[in-house]
Design a protein that fits this description.
Blueprint lengths: L4 E12 L2 E13 L4 E5 L6 H9 L6 E6 L2 E2 L7 E4 L11 H13 L5 H14 L15 H14 L4 E5 L7 H18 L2 E5 L3 H7 L2 E5 L7 E6 L8 H4 L3 H17 L3 H33 L1
Parallel strand pairs: 3-8, 3-9, 6-7, 7-8
Antiparallel strand pairs: 1-2, 1-4, 4-5, 9-10
Helix pairs in contact: 2-3, 2-4, 3-4, 6-8
Amino acid sequence: MKHYLDISNVGIEVKTDSGPFRALQDVNLKIDKGEFISLIGHSGCGKSTVLNIVAGLYGATEGGVILEGREVDEPGPDRAVVFQNHALLPWLSVYENVALAVREVFKGRKTRSEMRDWVEHNLALVHMSHALHKMPHEISGGMKQRVGIARGLAMEPKVLLMDEPFGALDALTRAHLQDSLMEIQNDLDNTVIMITHDVDEAVLLSDRIVMMTNGPAAGIGEVLDVDLPRPRHRLELAEDAHYNRIRQQVLKFLYEKQRNPASAAVENQAQGEAKNSENRDGVAGDDRKDDEAA
């Protein structure tokens, strides 16, 4: 059976001053059209590297990516990327930031009128119709991120790639944008791959959660099906036993099976210092006994 997106045996090795570094090893993932996939794992586990290989920004050392029967070997409008930093051009209005991408992708395929309608349609999807002519400095961080999502959607990509798109936002704005993204994905049936560090976000949004092992030579540790019915409502799910079981499985992987290397290093250092302190106390105690005996 052919899958819409096929990541096969992907590995990547990069040269560093201290020698070759193996970032990824044997990453395999088959994704169907319309799936929402979240990549989660500790910092340095290769999530962004996987995303950049699918985007065509990095070349794999081994293996490769096939999208709808064609090899991915360079960036293209069939894969739109939404970064944590919205990357809006500050001298262009909200409308113009989206229109720039639309003109690049649809030049010769849509008339000016069609392109204008398409820009406005995608800004309406993210509830930004009221701010078409505002400049980036005149809108909030959450609104900027909405424009970034609209720009990605307006390219009509086969796959929408999102690298922690809500990571820099406050909790309430983040929740609103998560709800908007669920609505959009439900309406458009987009194929989405999203990087997140937020377990609740991953469970709420995803069809499957891909949990990455720690690097170097990071790979896929486990893939968890999120078989919760849609549409999903966060307040109802908070009391849902199955939702909480899925959440616990992700937490168990992250904090038991794949502990944060930085946390482990701190803990090992603390244990080492405690042991040294015990040794020093033991020596001091022996010295005191010797003094008392004298």
